[in-house]
Amino acid sequence: MVQRRPNACLESLRRDLSSHFEKHQRLGFLIGRNGKVVFEDYAAGASQNTQFNVFGVHLGIVGLLTGTLIRDGSIDSVDAPVSRYISEWAGDSRGQISVRQLLQMSSGLEKFADTFSPFARALRSELGSDVLDVSLTLKSISKPGHSFYYSGRNVDLLVHVLERASGMRYTDILSNNLLKPANAGSALVWLDRPGGHAEAGRSLYIRLPDLYQLVKAFVDPEQRLVPEGWIDFMKSPSLANPHFGAGVWLGLSASPERPNVQSAVQHAVDLHANEYDDIF
Length: 280
Known about the structure:
The chain is of the alpha+beta class. 36% of the residues lie in helices and 9% in strands. Residues 260-280 have low confidence and may be disordered.
């Protein structure tokens, strides 16, 4: 059997990706192996310096940052009730929602109906100037831990927990606990207003090489950025949805629990142009 030379394999991959980029409107692709980038390609004017919006990947990064705060003792445990950090919910049944349940999208908080009404809380939570205020008004509609609902509002609340627990702005947590230790470059986080709250349920802009640096840092046992077993915890199926772990989809096929389409409201958020926070 004739073995193909590595360069020939990469050229074949590049041709295949060119067709894939055109069909699916993809802009960048990076492959890493054994801690090194072995293939990198871009389309439509994007380059190694382009900061891409990684959308739902940001939730996984919030999950990693949660682990860093548990490691340093700022958060007691993944089962700590959020009332310890969200004083507005002290003495409220919603305060018994755990950090775990926010990560696993099983908080039991109400769902927003998809609508373009400018007066609806759904749109205010995406395009308004105080996303935290909207998230704090969410009502509890089911027992935490038993029903799955993928919502950026869970992420907004979790980011608020991280900020209250650490005493730092979210962008500083991201920079100090992740980007700098991973030797990654800068990133941008979408804010609801200048100096306002990070909309972590929606947008993080980062270069692909820097995103790869983050992945390397968390799989490197010498870095120890998160507690032992944290990555395994994130990859473990949650009780409410076996397709979803703690902040990450588990790579299974599309299903009612993991739809492959987005709602109109999720598409609409791209129309907004809030301020960004520069990190690192």
